[in-house]
Amino acid sequence: MSEIAHEKNVSCILLTLNEESAISKVVGDIRRALPECEIVVVDSSTDRTAEIAEKLGCKVIRQLPPKGYGWAMDAGFKNASGEYIVTLDCDDTYPTEVLPELVRRLDAGADLVSCSRMEKRPQAMKFSHYLANRTFAIAACFVCGARTTDVHTGMRAYRKSMLEALPIEPEGMALPVELQIAPQRLGFNCQEFFIEYRPRIGDSKIVPVEGTIWTFRRIWRWRKFFNPRHAQSTLVSMSLLFPLALLLPNQPAFSQTKPEIKQSKKVAVQSPALYGGGLLMRVKMLNTEGPAALELDTLKADKITVPASQFEIPRGFKEAVSAKEIMLGRGADGLKDFLP
Fold first, then answer.
1. Would you tell me how many other CB atoms lie within 10 Å of the CB of residue 121?
2. Dist. CA 283–CA 263, nearest whole Å
3. What is the pLDDT of residue 193?
4. Mind listing the domains of the chain with CATH numbers?
5. 174-211 exposure pattern, b = at least 16 Cβ within 10 A, e = fewer
6. To the nearest 5 percent, what fractions of the chain are helix, strand and coil?
7. How far is C-alpha 105 from the geometric centre of its chain's CA atoms?
8. Per residue, what are the HEC states of 291-308?
């Protein structure tokens, strides 16, 4: 497949709120990096942003009155036609010259490629924001086991088939946090590398207090345990993360791949939880040399059924998981097994 033909399978999503001073430059930079990609603008502006975007050939989705960042992102995903979906902020803070690298990594097998701003403190980022972002990343690692240095980066590339399988909740702020953590918890191939974060054009749209609350809500939703005692101890421990954020070094950019498959005699259900209308099973394999997961691709099936007798169900979930057989499968409407 030629480079130009391949770019037609890429959609770039911009969420805009009064960005008329930046939209022309950002769209032009995207066109230079990926000339044939589709640009989808989800706009809730009261200025000329949407008008300018339409004249530049973008697909414009109006969301008035504004429904919030999460629903705007959801609208962008649903209206993007590309196999690959790239997101970045429309304020010129992200380097569009790395867009071809994002596409190359998806071509090589990644499901999610994230651009971290946190190799060191960017000059364009306030110290309070830098400290908060370090804290969020440490919390995501401690609570969810997510390996990332930047849960709030606005520049990522996703495989659309992966997005369609994620049981995410668009309501509320800080959806990028969930889009960073959920793929790792579900065993997708996630990669991250560092970029330069530049001064913004226009005003910041950050709402610090409410954004912080929603960030921790998103992190807590994907915690790697369901024990109330653990939950209490974790909340106490998280209160210590803020001062530690300055002391702990950044982890290097990483590449996470799916685990090696090993045979197992029994499965332990770690934390059944309701997501997207279906029961999401967080499981860990027992009687193996190390952690392993049932791999649906290897089994050549979208769903498998396992006798309930092969599951160890924690106290408190006997009634929730009472079937004689338990089905493991993909997507928000079924059951999904993944590493803790």
1. 16
2. 14
3. 96
4. 3-255 (3.90.550.10), 266-329 (no CATH)
5. bbbbbbbbbbbbbbbbbbbbbbebeebeeeeeeeeeeb
6. 35, 20, 45
7. 16
8. CCCCCHHHHCCCEEEEEH
For residue 122, what are its two tokens? 């960017």
0.70 exceeded by pTM: no
Dihedral angle, C-alpha 329, 335, 338, 340, nearest 10 °? -170
List, for residues 103-150, the tens digit of each pLDDT value. Answer: 999 999 999 999 999 999 999 999 999 999 999 999 999 999 999 999
Q: Which residues contact 315 (CB under 8 A, 6 or more apart)?
A: none
Backbone CA torsion sign across 300, 303, 308, 314: positive
- Alpha carbon distance 223, 231 (integer Å): 9
- Contacts (Cβ under 8 Å, ≥6 apart) of 318: none
Place of tokens 């033909």: 5
Q: Is the dihedral of CA 118, 119, 121, 127 positive or negative?
A: positive
Task: Encode 230-240: b = buried (16+ Cβ within 10 Å), e = exposed.
Answer: eeeebeeebee
- Look up residue 253 and give its DSSP letter: P
Query: CB-side exposure of 295: number of CA atoms within 13 Å?
Result: 13
- Beta strand pairing call for 190-194 and 156-159: unpaired
Place of tokens 């009634």: 319
